[in-house]
């Protein structure tokens, strides 16, 4: 080992660190001045999405894009907190995938508040007690989260962002081995996502559904004969040992989360989605006529999901995701034509599409 070269490299790293710190301080001062000039909310979903995409496109390596995005997400989060510390609620308790999604989207600087239910996240956001809520909307394996869809219809809140979170399920316990596990706690969806693994490795052990994976980890931390299926953060928080990692049956298992607020993204970011819910008369050709404007104006539909309307037997509403922002001319024209044809239409918001 060349000690002189190693010493020179360490000195160079120290000098670079000092320069990075100076630049971070300058960025913080600029962000604070932006807040003074705007005299309003600093958090702009479309602007933050543009910054992260631009930085990712300029990345020369060797750091991977995911690492660069994480670093700059934290820088932006810290700068925002200088002027406007955010309160962000999620489906708790602490250690859930919802918390992981919230931190992925907002960074570490906000005050994160675990709430007992998705309904409570909506109510606290609508009441203005918190700034933003993060709620699950669908999973690639288990499908839609019905309660979130229903609450989007009932509440006046809008979608201002989305988060895609790859779900890695781990079996964790105080027990020393799989052979010592006598029961498994987890959320019903996680049990379903790990069904094949459980059938192979713990076929005779009872599975106990609970309100959340974090609650499962908390229970397992109090029961030396039990195990929980949860994420890595829950193992760390509750002092459990991971007996088996990545036990989900589908390696591409992903959950999509929405960021809800009293506003959506005010302007386009360059890669956006627009979500809406609508209904149409139950007669032949009604759906074709309803969706015809999307083809007419060249707007791509990325999701079409039906849900009981709760207003009458066998009546449904349709949740639709479109590519583009509501202010983009093709989307604006398509929405205007769609509204004329629908018996009911509620725009749920336009927002930057999630970056993986």
UniProtKB/TrEMBL annotation:
It comes from the Bacteria. Its EC number is 4.2.1.51, 5.4.99.5. It catalyses: prephenate + H(+) = 3-phenylpyruvate + CO2 + H2O; chorismate = prephenate. Residues 87-262 form the Prephenate dehydratase domain. Residues 275-352 form the ACT domain. Residues 1-87 form the Chorismate mutase domain. The keyword Lyase applies. Pathway: Metabolic intermediate biosynthesis; prephenate biosynthesis; prephenate from chorismate: step 1/1; Amino-acid biosynthesis; L-phenylalanine biosynthesis; phenylpyruvate from prephenate: step 1/1. SUPFAM superfamilies: ACT-like (SSF55021), Chorismate mutase II (SSF48600), Periplasmic binding protein-like II (SSF53850). One of its GO terms (molecular function) is prephenate dehydratase activity. CDD domains: ACT_CM-PDT, PBP2_PDT_1. Keywords: Amino-acid biosynthesis, Aromatic amino acid biosynthesis, Cytoplasm, Isomerase, Lyase, Multifunctional enzyme, Phenylalanine biosynthesis. The keyword Cell division does not apply. Pfam families: ACT, CM_2, PDT. It is found in: Cytoplasm. NCBIfam families: CM_P2, PRK11898.1. PANTHER family: PREPHENATE DEHYDRATASE P PROTEIN, PREPHENATE DEHYDRATASE-RELATED. Catalyzes the Claisen rearrangement of chorismate to prephenate and the decarboxylation/dehydration of prephenate to phenylpyruvate. This is Bifunctional chorismate mutase/prephenate dehydratase.
């Amino acid at each position: 080992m060349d000690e002189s070269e190693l010493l020179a490299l360490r000195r160079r790293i120290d000098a670079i660190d000092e320069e990075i710190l100076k630049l971070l301080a300058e960025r913080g001062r600029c962000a604070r001045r932006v807040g003074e000039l705007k005299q309003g909310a600093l958090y702009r979903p479309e602007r933050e999405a543009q910054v992260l995409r631009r930085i990712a496109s300029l990345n020369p390596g060797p750091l991977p894009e995911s690492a660069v995005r994480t670093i700059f997400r934290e820088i932006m989060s810290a700068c925002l907190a200088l002027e406007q510390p955010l309160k962000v609620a999620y489906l708790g308790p602490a250690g859930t995938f919802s918390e992981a999604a919230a931190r992925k989207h907002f960074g570490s600087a906000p005050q994160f508040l675990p709430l007992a239910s998705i309904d409570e996240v909506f109510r606290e956001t609508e009441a203005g007690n918190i700034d933003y809520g993060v709620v699950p909307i669908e999973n690639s394996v288990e499908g839609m989260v019905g309660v979130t869809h229903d609450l989007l219809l009932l509440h006046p809140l809008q979608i201002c962002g989305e988060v895609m979170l790859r779900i890695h399920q781990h079996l964790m316990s105080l027990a020393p081995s799989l052979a010592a596990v006598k029961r498994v706690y987890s959320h019903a969806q996680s049990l379903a996502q790990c069904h094949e693994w459980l059938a192979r490795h713990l076929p005779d052990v009872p599975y106990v559904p609970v309100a959340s994976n974090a609650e499962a980890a908390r229970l397992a931390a109090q029961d030396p004969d039990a195990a929980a299926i949860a994420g890595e953060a829950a193992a760390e928080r509750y002092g459990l040992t991971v007996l088996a990692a990545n036990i989900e049956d589908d390696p591409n298992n992903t959950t999509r989360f929405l960021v809800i607020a009293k506003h959506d993204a005010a302007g386009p970011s360059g890669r956006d989605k627009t979500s809406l819910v609508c209904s149409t008369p139950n007669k032949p050709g009604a759906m074709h006529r309803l969706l015809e404007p999307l083809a007419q104006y060249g707007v791509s539909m990325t999701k079409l999901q039906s849900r009981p309307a709760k207003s009458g037997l066998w009546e449904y509403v349709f949740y639709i995701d479109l590519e583009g922002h509501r202010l983009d001319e093709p989307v604006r024209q398509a929405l205007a034509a769609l509204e004329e044809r629908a018996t009911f239409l509620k725009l749920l918001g336009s927002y930057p599409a999630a970056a993986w």
